Amino acid sequence: VCCCHDVFDRPVALLCGHSFCRDCVEQYWSVSDSRQCPMCRQISANTPSLNLALGNVFHQKKRTLVCCVDEQLVCEICGQSEEHRNHTYRPVQEVVEEHKYDAADLENRIKAGFKDIHQLLDDEEKAMFNELKLEKKEKLESLKIKNEMISEEIQMLTNTIKDLEKELNSGDIRIIQVTPVVLDPNTANFHLTLSVDPTSVWNPNKSEVINEQSNNNIERFADCPCVLGYVGYSTGKHTWDVDVEENTSWMVGVAVESVQRKGTNGLPSGIWCIGHDGEVLSVTDPLESRVPLHGFAKPTVVRVNLDLSAGRLSFSDLLGETVYHTFTHNFTEKVFPFFYTKCHFPLTILPKSFNKEI
């Protein structure tokens, strides 16, 4: 009894050598008590293998059709099989031509898209190039202006050098004066008056209306008639001379940068100085302990010698022959020249004069 009545579809080979459609033999075995060959009754394997050679025999015809349902290439014989019964078919060539036009349209759209992208990139490149070109132009103009300014400065320096060379060649002797310390107006108490230099300070003892807004300056001494030097020192040796001849109430020395500048009843702490008041010469340390110096006449000029490396501050006469007092202290913060006066005669910082052959 044969179980296949049509063209073999996915034929399988049993152990006995007979071949059947896979679906046909599986259906036959479903109603049989054992997995026997429908032809010779020999017991077969549980899973028979495909008979590829036999399957190819039934598909030697050219596959000229496309199954629209299964989207497969089939030959005319396959189109009549049970698997594809009542399906719709189209010729292969017709489907190929149709997809050919679709592919051509897709290709054209892709080309157009790439063309737009290239145009966009070209536009961005031109915009960036123009921006860089403008930036380059602006920088070149700025450099040109700076070069012109530098050239003018060079010319001015050249002229100055030529003038100095003329003086050098003339063999003249020039007296050069250097003031080692200048006063800082921002720290001066409102009762004090500073010279234009500013190298002199005095106390006119006049009642003045104080500008409260200006007095709020944190650098300014609010209650004590003091003023500091403009430059502070952290290292090295420094010397300055102060003319005190006519002044009757004064103090000179140094103050630390953190010296109290407001809310003081007397001399602020943080000061090392020598002073004269009431015909008495005395020195004062940061603890405000004033020590009289007996046996010294009132000086006309006080020389201040500050050696921060050695931790030494001394006061002497102009030639250094008479040393009034020496403090030894390791200064851990910046110190500034300090000046105090209640007298209408000035304290004046003397310039250092020396002759130099030109």
Automatic annotation (TrEMBL):
Task: Give the Pfam families listed for this entry.
Answer: PRY, SPRY, zf-B_box, zf-RING_UBOX
Reading the lineage from the top rank, the first entry is: Eukaryota
Q: Which Gene3D superfamilies match?
A: 2.60.120.920, Classic Zinc Finger (3.30.160.60), Zinc/RING finger domain, C3HC4 (zinc finger) (3.30.40.10)
Q: Which InterPro entries match?
A: B30.2/SPRY (IPR001870), B30.2/SPRY_sf (IPR043136), Butyrophylin_SPRY (IPR003879), ConA-like_dom_sf (IPR013320), PRY (IPR006574), SPRY_dom (IPR003877), TRIM/RBCC (IPR050143), Znf-RING_euk (IPR027370)
* Classification via PROSITE patterns: B302_SPRY (PS50188), ZF_RING_1 (PS00518), ZF_RING_2 (PS50089)
* Gene Ontology molecular function terms on file: zinc ion binding
Ranges for domain B30.2/SPRY come to: 160-354
| Positions of the RING-type domain | 4-41
- Coiled-coil residue spans: 133-174
Q: Which UniProt keywords apply?
A: Coiled coil, Metal-binding, Zinc, Zinc-finger
Q: Report if keyword Zinc is assigned.
A: yes
**The protein, known as:** Tripartite motif containing 35-40
**Source organism:** Sinocyclocheilus grahami (Dianchi golden-line fish)
